[in-house]
Design a protein that fits this description.
Number of helices of chain C: 19
Order of helices and strands of chain A: HHHHHHHHHHHHHHHHH
Largest sheet of chain A: none
Largest interface: A-B, 79 and 87 residues
Radius of gyration of chain A: 26 Å
Largest sheet of chain C: 2 strands, antiparallel
Distance between the termini of chain A: 34 Å
Strand content of chain A: under 5%
Order of helices and strands of chain C: HHHHHHHEEEHHEHHHHHHHHHH
Oligomer: heterotrimer
Radius of gyration of chain C: 24 Å
Number of strands of chain C: 4
Strand order of the largest sheet of chain C: 1-4
Structural class of chain A: mainly alpha
Chains: A mainly alpha (about 425), B alpha/beta (about 500), C mainly alpha (about 450)
Chain lengths: ~425, ~500, ~450
């Protein structure tokens, strides 16, 4: 018999098989518990224990508390570390943070933060899809850049009436992202190449290809008088207008231009949640991540799952550049946002691969990015945001791991004590 | 003897795990130069006790005395230093290192800062010779069979100059002949003045090899230092489980003529092209339990995985209910009614982080009541989980708790209940009662019998020869991937079965 | 019985792949001859020039050192994808010490900086049991963020700024002393300049002779002391890991930590040591880059930590294999750095010829097996051989067409060669590789199965 590698008690702990002895206190040995023998299991109406009761016993408010408490704890620790770093570098931590908050909550900043967060969000969802089945798609970065470049040049070359131009560009980006990601998936299932290594290599290759293609001899347009190299602009019929108009209709006035594709990101999050939690496919994906061996024995085709997941991850990665491309820049240039894939990894980790968590994490990271500009004024290099983000990730993963183990321990304890007290499903039903 | 200072004395050892007491007030005394057996059923707390004695875990209360001296072990290194050595039930050997490297690890002989391989090799050779074992120090461990691995483990312990040897369920993976060989080795060790602590739940073995016996039940000692000549196995069983041990047996035959599962000339190759399943032909009829006996690693795992579609057949066919299913996916086979109790429930049978009802869905994702079209039917799955929990007496406070929090026996009961749901036609059961307590064991046997009477065709694989003999209508022996014999379970003894499993007359080449 | 013969046949075919040292030497020789032929044919003299070779060596060293870091960590069972971050830390700490106290201080500080990163990785993965890759990614982010922040804070103020520092670069660091062998490559004895025999041979561009001279001169002229140290680390690592008690214990943690634990090995301590050595190697790689380019620059490592990891896998978790992998990557890198559009163009032909050879070999293998076919597996093997042969021929043809149709390769694509090579190598060889059995698994004391 073998033990789970996690914090379960060693193998022949008489865990819950024999309730009488599980009580540390000998006096508490209640004779009644011995009643839960096989004859108690008569075929009663199974509905006698309602689902909600079972849920309460299993999860309880503690579960929710941990889910929110852990990230808050991690963020507090990171905040303390950041303040220490600020102190060391000679700035006043409290006033620095204060000015960051002040600057970050101006309405100008909020639009920038939301735009940034949209990109981070899509990127993190792309990463989270892989994470959910224990696949590490480090290649989101290459996938979205390649997809954005090719989709941009396609959009710049073709003029179509309103919804079709946008759709063409978006679908093209999704296809390209998925196709580029599928290389890693196929290499993994056919040749056993770790997706971690292959996606890193594919990122570098994508960088080379983009540098090669983004050249006036190839995909870039000739722009006399400008030293930026960019693809031809997408015609206005193919662009997506800002959300501001819609928002002012419902009474929210914001300066600047809020990405018109922001709702798409929200939609992707909802679809992600529904698929993972409510569908058979999502179930297969989740168990493949938790235990590939058990998933395979249950009839999930591990190989197919790897390829599908990689492709889905790439498809969402293809979307990352779209809000910017269709809503702001209208072309792919050297100034197109880079490195979003890596930020996506950290945002997904911080958000625990849950769409709501990821949304909050994306906004936090966008806030840090935006508001760190102000630190220049107190003689602190704005690169401190990199330190902050690194610290956040590291504390977050450590705290999550510790909390997870603590949770298992608690759960075990409560299961054992409930059994000792005679609370079993079979026992309840027999009453 | 009693006036002698005991080699090991444990006094009121108590060890708690979250919510559970694994050991409670254990007292144990082992004299120098004896083979002492510690009996108890699965889950009684034997292994925890041994881990405490070997420094892998620390007791919450109680004291350990070695040769009359009180000690406190923080790590196995401390225990080793006091002359205690342990042969683990699951071998602790690194496959990709040589026998020599495995043996000297942690106690390397040095010469000028580097490992003195020469002297280590000499020492191991000499030791193997002294105790009558055959071992080449320079082979990789991955090339060794089970018996040889165990010998490496014993040499490892002796190499460190252990005076007290703990053997944790050493016979679990051995066939009777190998057990005899092991017991010969143990007697040899005793003759050299070593003390052996032998942990087992197999009573006949205990009675044949031990000088004295202690029994542990529900985490505490219920009898110590029994004399094997004055105690019967019936009395031991009563001490162990409070009643007689349940015996696996089938009643009247329910075998019909309809072949449900037909394996024909099945060949499965390793990635190196070596055949692991080599031309197996096997028919299982409705209402029949076909047992498959074999030393672990002789192709049983590969055979069942191929039947389940987890591996692909390299040639031959698998027929199910008259159809050729060789090319089917695992999921299609399961949907058609082939149920599967895997040999390693933690790796293949369960998702430990998942709740009970999520694990109910596992393996039956596409079937009612777990799903409707592409959607998971959470309500249906929950309701059916409650049914299984009641019918199969899974002791759990609720169906939302992660299954990892339950004991092995209760996990296994859920698996059995799950696989029996949805009226399967064929059940592939690998070690269905491994590592679980006798109550659960008896219950699972009863479920198998009932399903058989209802017409289920079962392929049963087990390392427990009594279970195989008692629960099979037909019994095949597998050796190096081939079915080498069919024996009549009604009049075969475990010893005879053991010889067939090792191919007694044929010389081993592996 | 038929299956037994299958096994024999399959193993018979495989046995031919069981290469030993003389074979490797012969293959290397043949490749050199081919390279020389290609060079002469395409007039791309840079392919085997001493400049290219010494650049290749110089560029291989950081990759090798990073890979060595990976090797140490993974031999102890910890996957270290944070090498890049540790390397970046090494560049900063190295430059910081280097501009003040000279190149040797740079080396020491670089090692310490990298080891610090290793320490963080060890704390996260070993003590807290965090997923190794997650921790590695976090360290890459932290390493980059911290160095950029510190560069802005330290190099952009006061004395450092006066010496030429800035937010994205450090003040200059003195170069390491270099070694040049006298007579062969024109090294100095005292103040006397000895003749450069290999150099003059190389200038003639003779078939093979000049190539050998070029390669040798590249290896014997102007070699940094640090390069020599890196080369020496190959046997040193082998000795420590495979011949000492410490090494055996480290490796046992990577193969089966619970077995090690049961014999009293302190697995946590071993892993800590190995991961910190790993970080130290990565830090040394960073310091090496600083001494070569004489300063710290933002983005200096440009993913070499990852390439090091790839080189380690390529080398099957062994020092010599790692070294050859690093040289391969260093060579392709050198092509790119030396503006090697022409050389890379010649290499197209080189690779095409190799593919033809592979195709021929697969064809021979397939037709040799074909008459013996009786089972599915054999049929699959034969089919595999033919498919491989076809793919190789097609690839070779494509390369040849490319070779004929173009004058040189665009630099952007040349820069992807190491990565494409890595992918190809992994795709073709990953089944032959054997990583430590417990690599990447999270170990908790006392929780054995």
């Amino acid at each position: 018999m073998s033990d789970d590698k996690r914090d379960l008690p060693p193998e022949d702990t008489p865990a819950v098989a024999k309730p009488a002895e599980t009580s540390a206190d000998e006096a508490a040995e209640t004779p009644s518990v011995a009643k839960a023998t096989p004859d108690a299991a008569r075929p009663d109406d199974p509905d006698k224990v309602p689902g909600w009761q079972a849920i309460l016993r299993g999860l309880g408010p503690r579960g929710l508390g941990l889910k929110i408490g852990a990230p808050v704890l991690a963020l507090l620790i990171s905040l303390v570390i950041t303040m220490i770093v600020l102190r060391i570098s000679g700035a006043d931590p409290v006033s620095s943070i204060q000015s960051m908050v002040d600057y970050g909550t101006t309405s100008n900043s909020i639009v920038d933060i939301l735009n940034r967060a949209t990109r981070y969000y899509l990127s993190a969802i792309a990463v989270a899809i892989g994470f959910r089945m224990a696949l590490f798609n480090i290649g989101v970065d290459g996938q979205y850049r390649l997809a954005a470049l090719l989709a941009a040049s396609l959009g710049g070359a073709i003029t179509l009436p309103a919804p079709f131009g946008q759709m063409l560009v978006i679908v093209a980006a999704m296809v390209i992202g998925g196709a580029w990601a599928s290389i890693a998936g196929l290499l993994k299932v056919t040749r056993g190449v770790s997706e971690v290594i292959s996606t890193i290599m594919l990122n570098a290759i994508a960088t080379g290809i983009i540098a090669y293609l983004l050249n006036t001899d190839r995909l870039a347009a000739d722009r006399p008088g400008s030293n930026s190299v960019a693809t031809p602009d997408i015609p206005s019929s193919g662009q997506v207008g800002p959300l501001n108009g819609f928002l002012s209709n419902i009474g929210i006035d914001l300066p600047g231009r809020l990405y018109g594709l922001l709702p798409v990101a929200v939609l992707i999050g909802i679809v992600f949640w529904v698929v993972i939690n409510r569908t058979r496919f999502g179930f297969d994906l989740k168990i493949s991540g938790l235990s590939p061996t058990a998933a395979q024995a249950s009839g999930v085709s591990a190989k197919r799952m790897v390829v599908i997941t990689m492709v889905l991850s790439g498809v969402v990665a293809g979307l990352i550049g779209m809000p910017e491309l269709l809503g702001a820049s209208y072309n792919y240039s050297l100034n197109f946002p880079a490195g979003l894939g890596f930020t996506g990894i950290t945002v997904a980790l911080l958000g625990r691969n849950h769409p709501v968590g990821i949304a909050l994490a994306a906004i936090l990271f966008a806030f840090l990015d935006q508001s760190s500009d102000i630190l220049q004024e107190v003689q602190v290099p704005k690169e401190i945001v990199g330190v902050m983000q690194g610290v956040v990730v590291l504390t977050v993963v450590i705290v999550y791991e510790l909390v997870r183990r603590w949770e298992i321990r608690i759960q075990q304890k409560s299961v054992a004590s409930e059994l000792a007290a005679g609370h079993t499903v079979a026992g309840e039903a027999a009453k | 003897m009693p006036d002698q200072v005991p080699a090991v004395r444990l006094t009121s050892i108590t060890k708690r795990f979250p919510g559970v007491v694994a050991n409670r007030d254990i007292d144990l005394e082992i004299q120098r130069g004896e083979v002492h057996a510690l009996c108890g059923e699965n889950g009684a707390g034997k292994s925890t006790l041994m881990k405490i004695l070997y420094g892998m875990q620390r007791p919450d209360e109680g004291t350990i005395e070695i040769d009359g001296e009180k000690v406190s072990f923080r790590t196995p290194a401390d225990a080793i230093a006091r002359g205690i050595g342990m042969v683990h039930q699951h071998f602790k050997l690194a496959d990709n290192l040589t026998v020599l490297e495995n043996v000297i690890l942690g106690a390397e002989p040095r010469k000028a800062g580097r490992i003195d391989f020469g002297s280590a090799r000499e020492k191991i050779r000499a030791m193997a010779e002294q105790y009558g074992m055959r071992l080449d120090p320079d082979t990789l461990v991955e090339e060794l069979g089970v018996g040889d691995r165990q010998r490496v483990e014993i040499i490892k312990v002796l190499y460190r100059g252990a005076k007290v040897l703990i053997l944790d369920e050493p016979t679990a993976v051995l066939v009777p002949q190998e057990v005899d060989e092991l017991f010969g080795n143990l007697r040899e060790l005793r003759a050299e003045g070593l003390t052996v602590l032998f942990i087992s739940h197999k009573l006949d073995e205990v009675l044949s090899v031990a000088d004295s016996i202690s029994v542990i039940r529900r985490g505490t000692t219920v009898a110590t230092r029994l004399n094997p000549r004055e105690v019967t196995s019936r009395r031991l069983a009563e001490l162990m489980v409070g009643s007689e041990l349940p015996t696996p047996e089938l009643r009247e035959s329910t075998v019909t003529e309809d072949v449900e599962l037909a394996v024909k000339d099945l060949v499965v190759l390793t990635s190196e092209g070596r055949p692991v399943v080599d031309g197996v032909t096997l028919d299982i009829r409705r209402g029949e339990i076909v047992g498959l006996a074999g030393v672990e690693g002789n192709g049983q795992s590969e055979l069942i995985e191929t039947i389940m579609g987890i591996r692909t057949a390299d040639s031959g066919t698998i027929g199910f209910a008259g159809e050729d299913v060789t090319g089917w996916t695992t999921r299609r086979r399961r949907e058609a009614g082939i149920a599967y109790i895997p040999e390693d429930r933690h790796r293949h049978g369960l998702v430990l982080e998942g709740s009970l009802w999520e694990n109910r869905i596992l393996g039956h994702q596409t079937e009612k009541p777990n799903s409707r079209g592409p959607w998971i039917d959470r309500r249906g799955a929950r309701r059916d989980t409650t049914r299984i929990v009641q019918e199969y007496d899974v002791r759990t406070p609720g169906i939302e708790v992660p299954i990892g929090a339950l004991s092995g026996g209760n996990q296994q009961k859920l698996i059995v209940g799950r696989e029996m749901s949805g009226e399967p036609k064929v059940l592939i059961a690998a070690h269905p009662t491994r590592g679980i307590d006798v109550g659960a064991q008896a219950a699972i046997w009863e479920h198998l019998r009932r399903a058989r009477a209802a017409g289920l065709a079962v392929l049963l694989i087990s390392a427990d020869l009594e279970e195989l003999i008692g629960m099979s209508d037909t019994l095949h022996v597998i050796l190096r991937g081939r079915l080498v014999a069919e024996v009549d379970p009604a009049n075969v003894t475990p010893e005879e079965l053991g010889s067939a499993m090792t191919g007694a007359t044929v010389e081993d080449a592996s | 019985m038929s299956t037994a013969t299958v096994a024999e046949k399959v193993s018979g075919v495989r046995a031919k792949l069981n290469l030993r040292w003389p074979h490797y030497m012969m293959i290397a020789g043949a490749l050199l001859v081919l390279l020389s032929a290609v060079r002469v044919l395409d007039g791309a003299n840079d392919v085997t020039s001493s400049g290219t070779v010494s650049a290749a060596l110089r560029l291989a060293v950081p990759i090798f050192l990073a890979g060595l870091g990976g090797l140490w960590a993974e031999r102890s069972g910890v996957v270290n994808i944070g090498l890049e971050g540790m390397m970046i830390l090494g560049t900063w700490t190295g430059a910081w010490a280097g501009y003040q106290w000279g190149p040797w201080a740079c080396v020491i500080a670089g090692i310490l900086g990298g080891a610090l990163g290793g320490l963080v990785h060890a704390i996260a993965t070993v003590t807290f049991g965090v997923d190794h890759i997650v921790s590695g990614v976090a360290i890459n982010i932290l390493g980059l963020g911290l160095t950029q922040f510190l560069a802005g804070l330290v190099f952009n103020t006061g004395h450092a700024k006066a010496l030429g520092g800035g937010p994205r670069q450090s003040p200059p660091v003195d170069a390491m002393p270099t070694l040049t062998v006298p007579f062969l490559s024109g090294g100095k004895i005292g103040s006397w300049q000895s003749p450069d025999w290999l150099g003059s041979l190389e200038k003639h561009h003779w078939f093979l002779v000049s190539d050998v001279a070029g390669v040798l001169r590249g290896l014997t002229a102007g070699m940094s002391v640090l390069t020599l140290i890196a080369v020496l680390l190959v046997p040193v690592t082998f000795f420590v890991l495979w011949r000492t008690p410490f090494g055996l214990r480290v490796r046992s943690c990577g193969e089966d930590p619970y077995a090690a634990e049961s014999l009293g090995v302190n697995v946590y301590r071993m892993k800590y040591a190995a991961v910190m050595i790993s970080g130290g190697c990565a830090g040394l790689a960073g310091a090496f880059m600083v001494t070569v380019s004489s300063l710290y620059q933002d983005g200096q490592t440009s993913g070499r930590g990852y390439i090091g990891l790839a080189a380690m896998i390529f080398g099957n978790w062994r020092p010599v294999g790692l070294a050859s992998g690093s040289l391969l990557f260093g060579y392709t890198d050198a092509m790119n750095v030396r503006g090697g559009g022409d050389s890379a163009h010649a290499l197209l032909l080189f690779v095409a010829v190799i593919f033809v050879a592979v195709a021929g070999w697969q064809l021979v293998r397939g037709s040799r097996l074909r008459p013996l076919v009786t089972t599915d597996l054999e049929r699959r093997t034969v089919r595999g051989a033919y498919v491989a042969s076809t793919i190789a021929i097609v690839t070779a043809a494509a390369m040849l067409v490319w070779f004929v149709m173009s004058d040189q390769l665009p630099g952007e694509l040349v820069s992807t060669i190491p990565y494409v090579t890595t992918l190809l190598v992994l795709a073709l060889a990953s089944q032959r590789l054997r990583m430590p059995a417990a690599d990447g698994l999270i170990y908790r004391r006392g929780e054995a199965r």
